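Aim 2 progress update. The chain analyzed this quarter is reproduced below.
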Amino acid sequence: MEDTVEQIKQQVIYLESLRVIERIKWAICKFGDDLVLSTSFGIQSAVMLHMVTQINPQVRVVFIDTGYLFDETYRYARELTERFKLNIKKYQPLMSAAEQESLEGKLWEQGEKNLKEYNFTRKVEPMNRALLDLKAKAWMAGLRRDQASTRKSLKIVTKQNNIYKIYPIIDLIDEDIDHYMLKHDLPYHPLQKEGYVSLGDWHSTQKLKEGITTEETRFNGMKRECGLHESTNLVDYQI
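Predicted structure tokens:
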């Protein structure tokens, strides 16, 4: 039986009181084989991957390969996949990068409307396909409130397009992440030492520099979210 809105509200209150590891255990216990974890193999992705696989090494890890990732991201993905023995489920857009550019040009350079189309084609649609293929009922992700203004009001559990979304590390800050990575000897993404603080596609990501915020390092400041986690996609209800 589906949880009611009131039941989910109570789960939010309960989970906010727990430690991160206990939240992950709750998700694994509640959803079992119907749970997936997504990763972008970004700057701090090793934290969630390590935490989750310490509890359930067989959890399915969805990786969306847009075809425009940094070379270093692919190498980092291989390193973490081998180190944690990840149960990777890689999904790619239906149209190759070369074909899309040939037919539609560089959409990310053509304004916010075309950027939205780009993000849907290369990120949102593959993720939706993954959730359907894997028959997922719950999706765990490593979003944190301090990462962007668009994430400050996120609840620890939401429901998006009939999928429960769970953010176990939502209230951690950078110092917490750094401490965990140091404690467990986890590697940062190789581009972290070059000044990158948030990573996506190579053409829409820049280093953090004087005069811009962390959010403005993505999509030339037009937007922070790529569509996967935008609250406007919460079609069933928001809590």
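The first strand starts at residue 35 and ends at 39. The chain has one domain: 5-233. These observations will guide the mutagenesis experiments scheduled for the next reporting period.
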